[in-house]
Structure formats: structure tokens, C-alpha cells
Amino acid sequence: MNIKSLLEVSEFSPSSLQAPDAWMGHLPFAAWIIREVSPKVFVELGTHSGNSYFSFCQSVVEGGLSSKCFAVDTWQGDEHAGHYGDDIFTQVNAHHQQHYAHFSRLLRMPFNEAAAYFSDESIELLHIDGLHTYEAVTDDFETWLPKLAPGAIVLFHDTNVRERNFGVWRLWEELQGVYLANLEFVHSHGLGVLQLNNAPAQKKLPWLQPGSPEKQDVINYFAALGSRQLERYGLSQVESRADEQGRHIVVLTQALTEREEQVKSLDQLVTERDGRINSIMVERDAAVHHLHDIRNSRSWRLTAPLRFLKVCVLRLRRQFFTLCHLIRLG
Q1: Residue 115 and residue 230: Cα distance in Å, rounded?
Q2: Is 75 helix (H, G, I), strand (E, B) or coil?
Q3: For residue 78, what are the β-bridge partners?
Q4: Dist CA 10 CA 110 (whole Å)
Q5: CB–CB of 159/171 below 8 Å?
Q6: Hey, what domains does the chain have and what are their CATH numbers?
Q7: CA gap 27, 97 in Å, rounded
Q8: Burial 57-93, CB ≥16 within 10 A → b, else e
Q9: Contact partners, residue 2, CB within 8 Å, separation at least 6
Q10: How are beta strands 41-45 and 68-73 bridged, if at all?
């Protein structure tokens, strides 16, 4: 086992991390195993948001491998992953085209349909992570088994999930009795790793063989790295939420400042309105006082008969004009 490569993978930092986080505890192992195997062809069945697949691809680039990589998925979801729209594939495809399109392909189709596009005994590393019922994962393995090269490595995710009709654990127990070169990580929902029995001597992975003293060391090491990876992801999520909340606070602060300016403007308008009302009230009081003074003056009392006479004259005048109008009509 290459100790140097084990130390190097401890520094592996995935360039793409998206929800869900079910595979994140295995990303360091993904980066390491693809370099250990250095497959001519790597295939992943079930890619979803791309956490596992992009870690394999990133390690191909960083390790200078000549591997050809293929991700097979309908990108529509299923009863275990949940169903989703085209936005997931759009995001995955954008990252893929930007970073890995020169050696990788995304095959958007059912698994059994994609199998027809691979020659028998051509795939040296296969990752199965599709629908997790016993029947579905068994069919995936049996369909793709003829496509596997002698001594190929096969990964099964969710071997440690025993709920919601998951059945990978059941197939994994059966395969362990057939393919003795295997190990299982129980963290992050479980990951089973096996090597086909027909491996040439030069392709056998010593740490995977029955009774290997290194097997438990590999399990412990990558469980620890996986735990660190999950902690980093959790921290990044906290930082992301904090940044989002910070941006929200900035928006709220700006809105509050604008509201305070509006209140200030309204206060100014109210002050100006109150000032005008006060001026009007003062003028009204002055007019009432002036009118009171006039009515209480001597001249007002002396001219009262004249004002009365004026009213009478105006009344008689209106009556006269009315009478003249009626005479003309008659």
C-alpha cells in the first residue's frame, strides 16, 4: 500500500460540494481509490448532484491519470433520492463542462440503456449508487457485471442503510460470500468495496484481500478523513448561512435607513402642516376679534337702520322684477 498516496489524500479538498451530503464522508476514499486503480474506464451509476463523481474526476486531473470517466443518470430522481427538476442536471452539466469535459461524459439515460454503449470487460472501476431497493441494485450489478474487466473494483453505496425499502445491505451480504476480497465502511450510510475474483496477480489490491492486516487500518483511516470532510462541509454550511444572514441584515438595515428617511420627511411635512394650521387659527381669531369689535362699535349701532333699509330695498327690488316678469308672460 502506497503510504505517500495515503498522506497526500489527507489534503484532498473537493472543488464541488452540493446537497445532499450522504456521500461526503467517502470523498477522500474516492480520490484515493481511483489513483490506486488508475482505471482506463470508470463508470458511476447514479450521480445526482455530483459530489462523488466530481471527486473522482478531480482526482483524475490532480493525479495526471489517463482515465475516461462516465456518469450515468436520468437526473430525474427516484423514490429514495427524491424527484427533482432539470435544475440539478443544469448545475451538474455546467460544472462538468467547465472542468472535466475533455475526458468525461454525462450519459443522461437509464442504467440498462447505457450498458449497451460499453464493451464487455472494459470497465475497471464501477460505482453503483442508483435506486437502492434489493431488486434494483441486484439488477444493476448483474447487468453491468459482463462489462467489468478482470479484477475490476466495484463500489456500493448505502450498504449500512436498513430502512425505507433500502436493500443494498442484503445484496452486499450475499456478495461478501462470493467475492472475498472486500471491505465495508460503515460511516456515511456505508460503502462496500469489492474486487472481482478473476484479478490478475499484478492487479490484486493487497489491503483488500481476506486476512490482510492493512484492511482495518484502511477502514479506520478513511473513516477519520471522512469525519473531517463532513466537519469541513458542516462548517462551510454554517459560514454560508452566516454570510446569507449578513447579506439579509445589510438589506434590512438599508430598508430601515430608507424608512427612517421617509419618517423624517413625513415629520417635516407634519411640522409644516401644523405651522400652517396655527397661522390660520391665529388669523381666524384675529378676524373674529375684529368682527366683535366692529359689532360693538358705536358706528355699527348707528348705521343699523341703514343696513336694515338696504335689505328691505333689495327685497322689494327682487319682488318688483318678479312681478314685471309675470306681467310680460301674461
Answers
A1: 33
A2: coil
A3: 82
A4: 35
A5: no
A6: 3-243 (3.40.50.150)
A7: 21
A8: bbbbeebebebbbbbbbebeeeebbeeeeeebbeebb
A9: 36
A10: parallel
Residues 87-125 have pLDDT tens digits of 999 999 999 999 999 999 999 999 999 999 999 999 999
Across residues 55-82, what is the average pLDDT? 92
Grid cell at residue 22: 450522504
Write down the residue that cell numbers 460544472 correspond to: 95
Query: Residue 184 is inside which H or E element, if any?
Result: strand 182-185
Cell numbers linked to 37: 486503480
| Nearest-10 Cα torsion for 56, 62, 67, 72 | 30
Of the listed ranges 69-83, 128-142, 185-199, 214-228, the one predicted with least confidence: 69-83
Residue 140, SS3 per DSSP: helix
What is the distance in angstroms between the CA of the first residue and the CA of the last residue of the chain?
Answer: 134
Residue type, 58: Q
**How does strand 41-45 pair with strand 77-78?**
unpaired
Q: Please report which helix (H) or strand (E) contains residue 216, including its range.
A: helix 215-295
Three cell numbers written together for 291? 368682527
pTM: 0.74
**AA letter at 168:** V
DSSP 3-state of 29: helix
Give SS3 for 102. coil
Q: What is the dihedral of CA 148, 152, 156, 159, to 10 degrees?
A: 130
Using CB atoms within 10 Å of the CB of residue 170, give its burial: 0 to 12 exposed, 13 to 18 middle, 19+ buried: middle
